[in-house]
Amino acid sequence: IYRERKSTKFSMLGQFTTYSSFRFLCFACFLPFVSLCCCRFDMSLKRKHQEEQKGGTAAGKRKIEPSSASAGESKLVVLTYDDLKNGVDLTAKIEAAFGSNGMGILAVEGVPDLKAKREQLLPLAPKFAAFSDEVKAKYEHPQSFWSFGWSHGKEKLQGRPDFAKGSYYANPCENEPFTDPDVIKEYMSFAHPNIWPTKELPALEGAFMGLGQTIVSVGMLVAEQCDKFVEKNSKHYVKGKLRHVLGESKVTKARLLFYFPREVAARVRADSVSNSDKDGAVDALPEGFRGRS
Q1: Residue 158 in this model has a pLDDT that exceeds 60
Q2: In terms of Cα–Cα distance, which of 122, 149, 125, 127 is closest to 29?
Q3: What CA–CA distance (Å, rounded) separates 149 from 140?
Q4: CA distance 194 to 149
Q5: What confidence tier does 162 reach under pLDDT thresholds 50, 70, 90?
Q6: Which 3 state secondary structure label does DSSP give 149?
Q7: Which residues contact 101 (CB under 8 A, 6 or more apart)?
Q8: Quick one: pLDDT at residue 52?
Q9: How many CB atoms lie within 10 A of CB 8?
Q10: Cβ contacts of residue 284 below 8 Å, gap of 6+?
Q11: Exposed, middle or buried: residue 200 (CB in 10 Å: 0-12, 13-18, 19+)?
């Protein structure tokens, strides 16, 4: 989990996600749980595993025998918030979740006030999405590649602009993590201050920050358990490393998602293609985009 240090972003199936810009931790809030997903981008290990599977019976190759977990019987590991908070040793469950036979994800149940915070925030997404394009454009930030404030149709899915969902991005831990203008300019996608529709939807800021900080705090508790697990298995591992790195980070990013009704997304996409035709720019669209909605 900790071997590589490549920067990445994550796309999660969920309505509210937060992720660190430089570690493979992503916290997604869905149903009554808070979940944490860890990803390791170690391509050499992936290639080795694929080669072993393809040549499992060949001479000189190790045959891979599927365990019960790899045969589709692995179950979601669920931790309780109280156990995390009280420092119970959960390293066996960490291994069950993130080990070679795990699902790569776990859930945390019993998080205080999570349901209430979800109910405060999630209904605000369709309210913002229903504002006029002129209002929403006020809270777009192209200078950060739409990494703060509102974003709709700026991202691509399978090579085409994605109009099916709108996103609102912000740092859930600090409204203004940096004050040095040079730092903000150089790292605009993460260092810029948050952007809030304080006039049109003043409740968004508090609800967004409240739920985001709750999810991050739970992720920190899970990170402590990940540290304990690695410490048991590696004498070279720096004690508390993951918890320290995440705790010192000032660039956590959260994303509030709204999925438009299909007919709305289709109409917006069609309008976008039509406008491109008028501007003489339709030839610049990806192959197969014209006429699709």
Answers
A1: yes
A2: 122
A3: 5
A4: 7
A5: confident
A6: strand
A7: 67, 68, 69, 70, 74
A8: 53
A9: 14
A10: 276
A11: middle
Distance of alpha carbon 191 from alpha carbon 182, whole angstroms: 10
Tens of pLDDT, residues 44-83:
444 555 555 565 544 444 343 443 444 456 789 999 999 9
| Type of residue found at 127 | K
Neighbours of 287 (CB within 10 A): 7
| Residue position matching structure tokens 């358990």 | 225
pLDDT at 37 over 50: no
- At 260 the pLDDT is 87
Q: Which of 63-72, 140-149, 157-166, 257-266 has the highest mean pLDDT?
A: 140-149
Q: Which phi and psi (to 5°) does residue 215 adopt?
A: -65, -45
Beta-bridged to residue 140, according to DSSP, are: 150
Rg of the chain in Å (alpha carbons): 22
